[in-house]
Design brief:
Helix content is 47%, strand content 17%. By secondary structure, it is of the alpha/beta class. Strands 5-2-1-6-7 form a five-stranded parallel β-sheet, with helices on both faces. A four-stranded mixed β-sheet has the order 4-3-10-9. A three-stranded mixed β-sheet has the order 8-11-12, sandwiched between helices. β11, α5 and β12 form a beta-alpha-beta unit. It is globular, with a radius of gyration of 19 Å.
Length: 316
């Protein structure tokens, strides 16, 4: 299958390397020129839970070079989804399936607005703990579940066909009729650790080990769970705190992508993760003070970091 991965950061690198290693024609598309050049020259190295390999795949900063693909995976951060979808127009044919895979809320809707409802499905991936080591090199701590489904309605033949492609690449995959539930179940995990780990600059395991940090993490999880349940989400679990504790216990050394963005001097996805909970809660008559506070503090921390970096570049 001809596959384009738009946004080859930590998780995008996992997808591209393993799908390419399985014999698919993979195109890694990213704006990071140094990363693309390293992949072109040396292949994409992936190490961690799936082993250690360097995979020869196509890489470019220009989507037009790839041409029409069978599957387009949009793996950018939430704030870059619309621009990635615009760039992906050149990859789309009448039978192309577009698979947005983002943290938080809103990604698939944004892609559908740009590329059309009929070509967009949804992917929900969690438990990998991926990070970029350097240009052309990524690693992942976990090796968990890929969940696929249509944006609405039951699983279709096209989703099952794509699921088989992922399975052939070694991923553990399940297809679902109710993808909205999966988005929210991952979001409950994300809000528990993304914001708190960024504020404390620590791993998931560090949060579990700290009574004070775990109290905030637990409150974030509970607020997201209650907002989702009041919105009509039929969660597969009744105890959100136990659920996120089990999640983090499987990948204690992982650092959330939001923290990795901060450490790299980039703005993170706070508005799509912890920041998405307060408006969702208000829409159903609830409040989310823990997520609201965590979001405000992360924004302030990011703003201070970006201002300091700007001053360094200007010589101030």
């Amino acid at each position: 299958m001809k596959i384009a991965v738009v946004g080859v950061g930590a998780m995008g690198s996992v997808y591209a390397a393993l799908l390419g290693d399985a014999g698919n024609e993979v195109w890694a598309i990213d704006v990071w020129e140094e990363h693309v050049k390293a992949i072109q020259e040396h292949g994409l190295r992936l190490e961690g839970a799936s082993g250690d390999r360097a995979v020869r795949i196509n890489a470019t900063t220009d989507a037009a070079q790839a041409g029409v693909c069978d599957l387009v995976i949009i793996a950018t951060k939430g704030m870059h989804v619309e621009s990635a979808a615009e760039a992906a127009r050149q990859l789309i044919g009448p039978d192309t399936l577009v698979l947005p895979i983002q943290n938080g809320l809103g990604g698939p809707d944004a892609v559908a607005r740009v590329l059309g409802e009929e070509q967009v499905a949804i992917g929900v991936v969690g438990g990998f703990g991926a990070s970029v080591v350097g240009p052309g090199h990524a690693r992942h701590e976990g090796w968990e579940l890929v969940r696929l489904g249509e944006r609405s309605g039951p699983v279709t033949a096209r989703v099952e066909r794509i699921a088989d492609v992922w399975r052939d690449a070694g991923f553990r995959v399940q297809t679902y009729d109710d993808v909205g539930r999966l988005v929210w179940e991952k979001l409950v995990c994300n809000v528990s650790f993304s914001g708190p780990c960024t504020l404390l600059e620590c791993t998931l395991g560090d949060v579990l080990a700290s009574e004070s940090a775990w109290e905030i993490s637990s409150r974030c999880a509970s607020e997201a769970y209650e907002a989702g349940r009041a919105s009509g989400i039929a969660f597969s679990f009744d105890e959100p705190v136990a659920y996120v504790h089990a999640f983090a216990s499987r990948i204690p050394a992982a650092r959330p992508s939001m923290l990795l963005d901060y450490l790299a001097g980039r703005r993170g996805e706070i508005d799509f993760i912890n920041g998405a909970i307060p408006p969702a809660a208000r829409a159903v008559g609830l409040e989310a003070p823990a997520n609201e506070t965590v979001s405000a503090l992360v924004r302030a921390k990011e703003a201070a970091m970006l201002a300091a970096r700007g001053a360094e570049r200007s010589g101030g």
